[in-house]
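Re: weekly structure request thread

Next one in the queue (262 aa):
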Amino acid sequence: MVKKHRFDELVEIMARLRGPDGCLWDKEQTHQTLKPYMIEEAYEVIEAIDTGDDEHLKEELGDLLLQVVFHARIGSEQGRFTIDDVLSSISEKLIRRHPHVFEGVEVSSSREVIERWEKIKKGEKEERTSRLDGIPGSLPALYHAYKLQKKMAGVGFDWPDKESAVKAYHRELEEFEEALEGKGDLADELGDILFMIVNLARHYGLEPETRLKEAIHKFETRFRHMEDSAEQSGKVFEELSLDEMDALWDEAKAQEVKDEDG
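Done, posted below.
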């Protein structure tokens, strides 16, 4: 039988790892040195969700939880905050921002829930000077743009409909083409196009970070098929002509269709 461990045990394990007789590597870590691991573990959780593998997801959620406990332990050693403070903070926030659950406030839709959430959140952050405050600058650029645009849409600063967003995209594309002819800043116009593509995705109910991840996965799958086909033919991939590579690419796409049809 697999032994069941409690949350408190994980906290105690981390305390021992950071203790006098603990792990040299763990004892050297700081909030700053752990930052890359927090980001990596969060992305690995997303990947596990996408695979639909519960065992993988369970493992990655544990790795992400470890990062929370690790940071809390460092905070505790410095006399700044403890894991109990972290738990209290999120518990109080959830209760405070869900008055329709804990205080009997009536709501009629999930949209109203979100509106109330944002209103309560705004009241908590009196020190904020802009409606843009609260969006982490460390977010990946694509997701940052998406969060920013959603927030602006929430205060009415948005294209009125999908058609208007499509027209705006075409205008940006025209300006990019003009920049290609030396009539503008090419880098600036490319940035505008990328920003506008995020806007289009949002208007059509598509989350761009996920869509791009899926496009990358599709490309990688096709490219690996190309490599395998070349190897099975006894050819060196780098020595193939562009036409031969294009033919393998089309072959990979055709294989996708066959796989989807079963």
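The two ends are 40 Å apart (CA to CA). Residues 97-127 form one domain.
Next request, please.
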